[in-house]
Amino acid sequence: MYLFLSGVFLTLAAVVGFNPLWQVIRKLPSKMKFVWVHGGLATLGLTFLILQATQSAKPTPMLAFMITIITFLGGVGLFALRRMKAPVPAGIALIHPLAGAVALVLLYQALLAR
Q: How many Cβ atoms from other residues are within 10 Å of residue 34's Cβ?
């Protein structure tokens, strides 16, 4: 159940996160309402993933969890740069969703392998 909820919230976070990513690519400031919703959904998804990864004996949820933590820390860094009104490096803004996509693929693999 936790794995499914994590997948739902992290997928919703990815969908909402396309708007801030598109704004960074276009070199425009991101709308903070999308950033806050994206972060909130990602935090909920990460919480459910923590619950699943600590209870599962299989390695795939734990690997998805570790990559999601890296993605989460990158997102916090991007958020901090945005709040300080510093320029957001495009490389970091692209690595963040790519790592998130890898984590989601692993999460879905763990979900479908059940």
A: 17
Q: What is the pLDDT along the chain (114 residues), one digit of tens a residue?
A: 888 999 999 999 999 999 988 888 888 878 889 999 999 999 999 999 888 888 877 777 788 889 999 999 999 998 898 889 888 787 888 899 999 999 999 999 988 887
Q: Is the dihedral of CA 99, 101, 105, 108 positive or negative?
A: positive
CA gap 114, 110 in Å, rounded: 7
The rounded distance, in Å, linking the Cα atoms of 15 and 88 is: 20
Asked if 97 contacts 68 with a C-beta cutoff of 8 angstroms, the reply is no
Domain ranges of the chain: 2-112
Q: How far apart are CA 30 and CA 15, in angstroms?
A: 15
Burial class from Cβ neighbours inside 10 Å (0-12, 13-18, 19+) for residue 25 reads: exposed
Kindly state the tokens that stand for 42.
């990602």
